[in-house]
Design the sequence.
């Protein structure tokens, strides 16, 4: 089969054309790109690059969040939420009647603007002012 006939049949689909072109002895354009050495990255490199983006990137935090148990001078937003939820679970602060509501103790009041109760969906919004802007 000639390459012109193959082009009419396969209508320019490179995946299908590559087998017909290889049979004719011609090398398709995509084969030259595949012949070059692929870029090698290790799992550790990929994990490190992924870890430093978005909510996983450590940023400086306020004094109130730094004094919170398990706090550090720089912490990622995801880890801050984990620390707050670990404190809530350890001290059994969820309202038994309404599990979406958290009864704040003194430590939580220090980071949640003195509020007695917060909703579980409000936690990330209330933590947001504690993260310092970095450029």
Sequence:
């Amino acid at each position: 089969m000639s390459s012109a006939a193959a082009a009419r049949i396969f209508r320019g689909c490179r995946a299908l054309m590559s087998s017909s072109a290889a049979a004719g002895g011609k090398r398709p354009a995509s084969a030259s790109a595949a012949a070059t050495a692929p870029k090698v990255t290790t799992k550790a490199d990929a994990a490190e690059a992924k870890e430093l983006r978005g909510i996983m990137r450590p940023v400086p935090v306020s004094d109130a969040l730094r004094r919170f148990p398990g706090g550090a001078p720089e912490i990622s937003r995801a880890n801050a939420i984990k620390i707050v939820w670990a404190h809530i679970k350890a001290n059994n602060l969820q309202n038994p009647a309404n599990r979406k509501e958290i009864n704040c103790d003194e430590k939580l009041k220090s980071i949640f603007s003195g509020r007695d109760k917060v909703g579980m969906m409000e936690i990330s919004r209330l933590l947001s002012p504690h993260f310092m802007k970095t450029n």
In short: The chain has eight helices and four strands. The mean pLDDT is 80. The chain has two domains: 3-38, 54-130.
